[in-house]
Amino acid sequence: MKITMLAVGTKMPRWVDEAYTDYAKRFGRDISLELKEIKPEKRGGGVTAEKGIAAEHERLIAAIPPRARLVVMDERGKNWTSVKLAEGLKEWMAGGDDVVFVIGGADGLSQELKQRADVLLQLSAMTLPHGMVRVMLAEQIYRAYSILNNHPYHRE
């Protein structure tokens, strides 16, 4: 199974890249986690938030692999536990589906992309820095994987 994290934004602080990489390399052969950074649209000079979101939307759509489950991160999405994420991961694996998690840019994501999502998922009700979201999401995906494999990483 291939899990892709599409994240609007580039040039993250080193600690973000190091933490993400640490989690991404923990998976076994049956799952790979790959980060694809999407160039954010520059704001200002007549580029409104709406125009920026539309441009980022086009880049995100182009990067979504065909026939992949689409999980869009949104503060108003479903509030799953780690165990529920593990159940979702198990279902997607059983169906042979690849999964794409989408993290939006500074102004968020288009309504069209949110409506297209198979799951609209909340990582936190609080607004988080985008680099932190990458790290926390990678950790939660790894935690779900460890739950499925009865690894002692997760404790109830």
From TrEMBL:
Subcellular location: Cytoplasm
Entry keywords, A to Z: Cytoplasm, Methyltransferase, rRNA processing, S-adenosyl-L-methionine, Transferase
Enzyme class per UniProt: transferase
EC numbers: 2.1.1.177
Superkingdom per UniProt: Bacteria
UniProt-listed Pfam families: SPOUT_MTase
Binding site for S-adenosyl-L-methionine: G104, L123, S124, A125, M126, T127, L128
Catalytic reactions of this protein: pseudouridine(1915) in 23S rRNA + S-adenosyl-L-methionine = N(3)-methylpseudouridine(1915) in 23S rRNA + S-adenosyl-L-homocysteine + H(+)
Subunit text: Homodimer.
Function: Specifically methylates the pseudouridine at position 1915 (m3Psi1915) in 23S rRNA.
Family under the similarity heading: Belongs to the RNA methyltransferase RlmH family.
HAMAP family in alphabetical order: 23SrRNA_methyltr_H
Protein name: Ribosomal RNA large subunit methyltransferase H
Protein species of origin: Chromobacterium piscinae
The encoding gene: rlmH
